[in-house]
Amino acid sequence: MQFCANKLDKKDFFGKSDPFLVFYRSNEDGSFTICHKTEVVKNTLNPIWQAFKISVRALCNGDYDRTVKVEVYDWDRDGSHDFIGEFTTSYRELSRGQSEFNIYEVINPKKKGKKKKYTNSGTVTLLSFVVETEVSFLDYIKGGTQINFTVAIDFTASNGNPTQPTSLHYMNPYQLNAYGMALKAVGEIVQDYDSDKMFPALGFGAKLPPDGRISHEFALNGNPQNPYCDGIEGVLEAYYRSLKSVQLYGPTNFAPVINHVARYASSVKDGSQYFVLLIVTDGIISDMAQTKQSIVNASKLPMSIIIVGVGPAEFDAMVELDGDDVRVSSRGKYAERDIVQFVPFRDYIDRSGNHILSMARLAKDVLAEIPEQFLSYMRTRGIKPSPAPPPYTPPTHVLHTQI
Q1: Is-contact 44 27, C-beta < 8 A?
Q2: Burial 309-331 (b: 16+ CB within 10 A, else e)
Q3: What are the residue ranges of CATH 3.40.50.410 in the chain?
Q4: Tell me, what's the pLDDT at 392?
Q5: What is the greatest pairwise CA distance in the chain?
Q6: What CATH fold (topology level) applies to the domain 137-380?
Q7: In this structure, are residues 346 and 318 in contact, taking their beta carbons and an 8 Å threshold?
Q8: Residues of the chain with CATH 2.60.40.150
Q9: Fewer CB within 10 Å: N-end or C-end of the chain?
């Protein structure tokens, strides 16, 4: 909305007035709550205030006919602002936009009571009124946007020998290791948003059979042409199977798996698909410069990266990649948006051994930033959600009795 005023009362002894507006929402009990203040326009009786944004909830709690009260003041340095007058309106009136209905007389009740010839203390005019509908993450999902979930697992030697109980990759026949728990916790939530539940699962930092070549993006199921696993159970199965066949090695390079997903993400920019890469790692990263470069490039694409750090390492590098405090940059170029969410797994291991509670918390924190990252991509690209298809109604079968 944007407002201007005309011929407001002069309140300052030396100058004109320094007017500003205060907007109040009326509450159920008849009281008023301030919901917006404009800036002060100095030394004028005909101010034009800057346009401002306010949510419908803040203005009238979604009730279009509820009273909105507006007070006009003359600003004073000592904080004792002089009251010029007031008027009331409503969302419904304002939504008519710039028109004769939206020119308001500013009335000062005290003056009105004293002066017989009092008409008003000036007028306030609505210059413009625009409504923007905020769309949610679920509006896109309902409209058919697909979430593609890819898993990448750290197979570097720093994780420890999988046959030893001290290893983060320990193949314990009775319970999931740290990698398994992290995959299950996050994957079980994400798989609800992935309609085909087929997840490409990659490993990095291992020597592969038969020739022992080092790979930083190999298919866990052994099929590079089709690295898809069926559901999170399928990913876990492929993970445990590959632990038996590959040799943990190094170094810990993230860029190849990030670029792997980015190649897919760069081919669908119409908002119909969004890619989420989950990297589970013990955290000592070797290709920091290349990884930053990959993240800066990926920030322009429909993708997000989740890093779950397992084990006791210092995760300073991961926190840096997370970009919450300082946006990730590479060669002087900053990431267009924050696309990395990092969480240390150890913060979620419940001391009492109650993994269920911790896993729910882990999943919640890991996925907390995805909807906003997703929306920021869609907003900057001007992509609106497709309308949701009508709800499915099963056909009614007519039974023919055979004679």
Answers
A1: no
A2: bbbebebebbbbbbbeeeebebe
A3: 137-380
A4: 73
A5: 103
A6: Rossmann fold (3.40.50)
A7: no
A8: 2-128
A9: C
| Lookup result for tokens 């298809």 | 389
In the block, tokens 């760069």 appear at: 266
Dist. CA 52–CA 60, nearest whole Å: 16
Q: What is the DSSP string of 362-384?
A: HHHHHHTTHHHHHHHHHHHTTPP
Is the confidence at residue 357, as pLDDT, over 90? no
Structure-token pair, residue 117: 């010839």
In single-letter form, the type of residue at position 43 comes to: N
What is the average pLDDT across 328-348?
Answer: 90
| pTM, to two decimals | 0.73
Q: Which helix (H) or strand (E) holds 330?
A: strand 329-330
Q: What is the DSSP letter of 385?
A: P
* Residue 348 pLDDT class (50, 70, 90 cuts): confident
Strands (E), 129-252: 146-154, 198-204, 206-208, 213-215, 218-219, 228-230, 247-248
| pLDDT tens digits for range 244-263 | 999 999 999 999 999 999 99
At residue 86, the 3 state secondary structure works out as strand
- What the block records as the tokens of 96 is 């008519």
- Which of the four CATH numbers 2.20.25.100, 2.30.30.240, 2.60.40.150, 2.40.160.30 does domain 2-128 have? 2.60.40.150
What angle in degrees, to the nearest 10, is found between the helix axes of 288-298 and 255-265? 10
| pLDDT at residue number 361 | 85
Query: Could you read off the pLDDT of 6-44 as tens digits, one per residue?
Result: 999 988 777 789 999 999 999 989 899 999 999 999 999
